[in-house]
Amino acid sequence: MPQNKATGQWTPYNGACPYPSRTEMNQRVIPLADERLLRQLPTIPRELAAPTGQLLDSRGRAVRDLRISVTDRCNFRCVYCMPKAVFDKDYAFLPRESLLSFEEITRLARLFAAHGVSKIRLTGGEPLLRRNLEQLIAQLAAIPGIEVTLTTNGVLLPKKAAALKAAGLQRVTVSLDSLDDAVFRAMNDMDVPVADVLKGIDAATAAGLGPIKINMVVKRGLNDHEILPLARHFRGSGHILRFIEFMDVGSSNGWRMDDVVPSAEVVRRIHAEFPLEPIDPNYTGEVAERWRYKDGGGEIGVISSVTQAFCSTCTRARLSTEGRLYTCLFAQSGHDLRTLLRNGRSDAEVSAAIGHIWQGRGDRYSEIRSAETAALRKIEMSYIGG
Ligand code: SF4
Q: Is 316's C-beta closer than 6 angstroms to any atom of ligand 1?
């Protein structure tokens, strides 16, 4: 698959891995600038157009999903997201007063709902570390037409699942990168046993938050040998196991192309033991490509940001813990909505600013990924919440 020398762009993957020049992608790059400082004050358009519920960006993509990071802290130090080398004891997490309050988050969520958002996913860091999260969930679940979901590492679910469900949480996604306890402890780098996550999944199921989506980030040479053990474990459980390609998110996980296991290879490995067939997406813009076991053992998904870009149907906006709006997971800077809120701007003004930002959106990072883009300083996943 040729690389366009002039633009450095690669054609998205559709078979064997196409990347000609690997050496460039094998350089470990950890820039140390703090992207949280890069922000733009949103423009408030002169004309405050009322939201129509069908806000489209410059590529005709509607805003449907709002991912809200409610904390930049986590009780794990996953090596591909929050490596200890960077997020150590001296790391400056966001001060409490800079975080959006539940009222500010709910106000913004209401404004996004008027623009067409129908699903809110709470993320982090680890969202269950944010105190009284149930209160926020109850406020968000009260917004008409909004589905509230959450992504967690699962270890706090035994304590919290029932209260989250009672507050209005509809579904939960749990991250689980290995069933092998030694590998799992090494990947979360906080010596947390895998049993704690499995108990969390059981608690969420018992609380009625199922079917649970279970996300495994696959890194070659680290946990790819765990693909089949996880498939065997969750087959027939009713839960949906999804395999995520290791991504060059942020600037601190030392991403290299050689560490990526293409989704096609994941599917091939599973298919060899449990025959699979593709199934249609549940809706346009669904991130995971769906496959089901031919013998009725349920379904799996693959999320292939590196080898099968899905930017053309990307409907996701992201709100950081302190109110920056990001229009792409691989963004380098965000739009400071918190300042508008705290400067007393009206709903009409903040809503118009959101509209203006989204209409100007043209993001398509995964379509243009290259050695140069992989080395860019990008916002951290632990800050923007994946
Ligand atoms: S790379 Fe950016 S634009 Fe593309 S799918 Fe991901 S978040 Fe959306």
A: yes
Q: The domain that contains 163 carries what CATH number?
A: 3.20.20.70
Phi first, then psi: what are they for 62, rounded to 5°? -80, 150
Q: Hey, what are 330's tokens?
A: 């691989």
Q: Ligand 1 centroid to 337 CA: how many Å?
A: 21
Contact status, residue 379 vs residue 250, Cβ threshold 8 Å = yes
Q: Measured in angstroms, how far is the CA atom of residue 287 from the centroid of ligand 1? A: 10
**Whether 71 contacts 101, CB under 8 Å:** no
* Stretches in the chain below the pLDDT threshold 70: 1-39
Instruction: Please tell me the predicted confidence (pLDDT) of residue 35.
Output: 53
Contacts of 37 (CB under 8 A, 6+ apart): none
For 209, phi then psi, to 5°, come to -95, 10
What confidence score (pLDDT) does residue 38 get? 60
Give the CA dihedral 53, 59, 65, 66, nearest 10 degrees.
-90
pLDDT score at 24: 45
| 257 Cβ neighbours under 8 A, 6+ residues apart | 17, 19, 22, 25, 26, 306, 374
State residue 25's pLDDT score.
43
25 falls within a domain:
no
Gap between the Cα atoms of 245 and 287, Å rounded? 12
| 65, β-bridge pairs | 119, 316
- Is 180 within a domain? yes
Whether the CB-CB separation of 201 and 214 falls below 8 Å is answered with yes
Mutate to test the pocket of ligand 1, among 244, 311, 312, 315 (most ligand atoms within 8 A of CB): 311
Which atom from ligand 1 is nearest to the alpha carbon of 331?
2
For residue 288, the enclosing domain spans: 37-384
Q: Is 41 among the domain residues?
A: yes
Decide: 267 and 303 in contact? Cβ < 8 Å. no
Q: What is the tally of structural domains in the chain?
A: 1
CA distance 170 to 1: 43
Tell me if residue 300 falls in helix, strand or coil: strand
The answer to whether position 24 is within a domain reads no
| 197, two tokens | 């996550």
Give me the sign of the Cα torsion angle 250, 30, 88, 196. positive
